[in-house]
Amino acid sequence: MRKNDEYGGMDWPGVRLVRHRFFLFGTLGLLRFPDVYSRLHALSKSDSAGLGLVCIGLGLYSGSWLTTLKLLLVWGLMLLASAIGAGLIARTAHQRGMRPWGL
């Protein structure tokens, strides 16, 4: 029996495409959005969602509850670090007088 069949024959390449879209959209947001605040939003949200899907996929693929819990812990710590980092960058940009686009 193949590993994918244990989980109802999930389409792993399809799940991979969804994860990669989040990272791709975050990169496009970084390149296309006009100001630092919009870019931070695009990167922090898409990277958090993309890494979450990667961790969930790896947890399902591992077949171990302990490994899945460790991966979810890594994802939670990354969510915390991403929020703190984005807040610090936004506060520094605001203190230096960078105004949001359109204001």
Commentary on this structure:
- The protein has 103 residues and is mostly helical.
- It is 77% helix and 0% strand.
- It contains three helices and no strands.
- Helix 1 packs antiparallel against helix 2.
- The longest helix is centred in the C-terminal third of the chain and has 31 residues.
- It is elongated.
- The chain starts with 11 loop residues before the first helix and ends in an 8-residue tail after the last helix.
- The mean pLDDT is 82.
Helices and strands in order:
Blueprint: H1 12-32, H2 36-62, H3 65-95
Number of helices: 3
Q: What is the terminal-to-terminal distance?
A: 59 Å
Question: Strand content of the residues, in percent?
Answer: under 5%
N-to-C series of helices and strands: HHH
**What is the oligomeric state here?**
single chain
**Helix and strand composition category:** mainly alpha
The general outline is elongated
Biggest beta sheet attributes: none
Helix content: over 70%
Radius of gyration: 17 Å
* Average pLDDT reading: 82
Query: Are there runs of 5+ residues with pLDDT below 50, and where?
Result: none
Q: How many E strands?
A: 0
